[in-house]
């Protein structure tokens, strides 16, 4: 059974504690030995893989000589580490990987969605999301709860401090009539509206490009202010996170290459509007 992914809050707090240690030039072994811990314990704590307690953080802050408001802030973060988000309450049955993804999205500074088959979830309309669920053979009694969850994820785009969202989609996504012409016309108009926000960029990869790095599969790249970037890969019945920096690097390179190959945002908007008009004329 795959391990439960670390929470976004735990990864963020762990990254801050690691930065404090590195800023003082201390090795993880020296800090761990001074506290009577094993080096692996400290490593897992800094990577969000081990439950962080307020006592753990308080002990580390003594070693790092952190006092005053900064100490209070970090201890407050420690108290919040295990507080469930909205996606972890009231919606039973959501897979651990999905709840982890939503948590990471809520903490990310920048999100890149490379979509080769469908409109990424953060930009889906209600009717499009419902059609995806129906076509994906989701049990009828679960569809509405999953649609609500998907739409709930989008609230982060309207926050006072939203993450940057960069969406790169294949032209085939625009032309796949999920839900029928009316649903697709509304969906493409929704993308156009979203793309008008200063924090959202949408680019389209033309089918005429032929093979490119995106044809290897869709992925979500999440980048954080402190913690290492991670990648989410979704499959038919499972999904996984890639979090080792060496494994994440090729996805970051693929993002950059695909952004160069795709239409620029203005040309992409023109294509989206043109295809939306085609659907409206059917």
Automatic annotation (TrEMBL):
One GO molecular function term of this record is: DNA binding
Gene3D superfamilies named in the record: lambda repressor-like DNA-binding domains
Q: What residue range is the signal peptide?
A: none
Q: Which InterPro entries match?
A: Cro/C1-type_HTH, DUF5753, Lambda_DNA-bd_dom_sf
PROSITE patterns associated with the record: HTH_CROC1
Matching SMART domains, A to Z? Answer: HTH_XRE
Q: Pinpoint the HTH cro/C1-type domain residues.
A: 17-71
**Protein name, as recorded:** Transcriptional regulator, XRE family
